[in-house]
Design a protein that fits this description.
heterodimer; A: alpha+beta; hypothetical protein PF0899 fold; 3-stranded antiparallel beta sheet; 6 strands; B: alpha/beta; Rossmann fold; 7-stranded parallel beta sheet; 8 strands; 21% strand
């Protein structure tokens, strides 16, 4: 369950960003990106967030997760196919001569504070 | 009020990992992050590796486990500098734990630092420790479907060590399937077959690591 330590880092980072901005207040919305191939599970992130956020500035914040897909590039048929997970073969032709790009990001995108 | 951050969530870990790597580079140390399931033979391989490095390179070891000093004691018997990290429940090492471990390790004269991560094929994948190479171990008793089932860690590794190869004739582990899955995920990844118990194949890994280590000293490796 490495999602727990990822959410710990996220909460620390949000607090750091808020301090740096010179603003203060409760977080109402948080936007993050979790790439489909990052090895991080979005449901586990939500669960960890529910566990860890209550005593912080992020209590009750609306956590929005974007999950960009990756692209499988096939050297056999040249197809470029969007994929949700690591694949063993090209979804178009079944060849194993593939490379996968993208979908690895784990990003804190933006923080919305209470007015 | 909206703050646009657009930063990596694990930025703090990555910055610390970068500092660890700079420290290793300055000291001329090749650092390896060794991962694999509990029981795949990480510590036993390490014991066999240390024996084959004798007189050729000076190793040091950081052991990561949830609890106990069992592994560190095994390594200490070989006369190798070792520090045990107990994560007290955490399923992976992170860069700050490694930085703290390095502070209590005598690194002068060390060429090769092996960090044995917590036994785990999932959580260890996301955390850069500041290593130069990540090697993943998979034993023949675990089954040949593991590369396909836990792809992230294999995709992010520089070499796959198939361990307990002496047990091959007792099961139906398909080395070709594993090699094909690894090739798809990590086209440039090296694959070694070994048995730490019989010694088969360990020398090849030692030679590969020494080659990387020497190239570092020559300033060629990144």
């Amino acid at each position: 369950m490495h999602e727990l330590s990822i959410v710990e880092s996220l909460i620390e980072q949000v607090q750091h960003e808020i301090n740096r901005s010179g603003h203060e207040g409760r977080v109402v919305r948080l936007d993050i990106t979790i790439g489909r191939l990052s090895g991080v599970n979005a449901d586990s992130i939500r669960f960890a967030f529910e566990l860890l956020s209550p005593d912080t500035l992020l209590a009750d914040a609306d956590l929005r997760i974007t999950q960009p897909k990756a692209v499988c590039h096939c050297k056999a048929c040249e197809a470029r196919t969007e994929i949700d997970e690591l694949v063993a073969a090209c979804p178009a032709c079944g060849s194993g001569r593939i490379t996968m790009e993208g979908g690895q990001d784990l990003l804190l995108e933006s923080i919305e504070l209470e007015d | 009020m909206k703050i646009i951050a657009a930063k990596k969530i694990l930025k703090a870990n990555e910055e610390l990992a970068g500092k660890n790597r700079a420290r290793f580079n300055q000291a001329g140390i090749l650092t390896i992050n060794m991962v694999g399931s509990p029981g795949c033979g990480k510590t036993t391989f390490l014991e066999a590796l240390v024996a084959r490095l004798a007189g050729r390179a000076a190793p040091a070891v950081i052991e990561g486990d949830l609890a106990s000093t069992i592994d560190a004691q095994r390594i200490e018997k070989l006369g190798v500098p070792v520090v045990q990290i107990n994560t007290e429940g955490a399923c992976h090492l992170d860069a700050s734990m490694v930085a703290a471990a390095c502070d209590s390790l005598e690194l002068d004269g060390v060429d090769l630092l092996v960090i044995e991560n917590v036994g785990n094929l999932v959580c260890t994948a996301g955390f850069d420790l500041g290593e130069h190479l990540r090697i993943v171990l998979l034993s023949t008793s675990e089954g040949d479907d593991k590369v396909a089932k836990y792809p992230t860690i294999f995709q992010k590794s520089d070499a796959l060590l198939v361990t307990k190869i002496d047990l091959l004739s007792h099961g139906d582990f398909d080395v070709d399937r594993v090699a094909a899955d690894m090739k798809r995920l990590a086209p440039n990844g090296r694959i070694f077959h070994l048995s730490a118990r019989t010694g088969e194949g360990v020398q090849q890994v030692a030679d590969w690591l020494l080659g990387k280590s020497r190239r570092r000293e020559g300033g060629l490796a990144g």
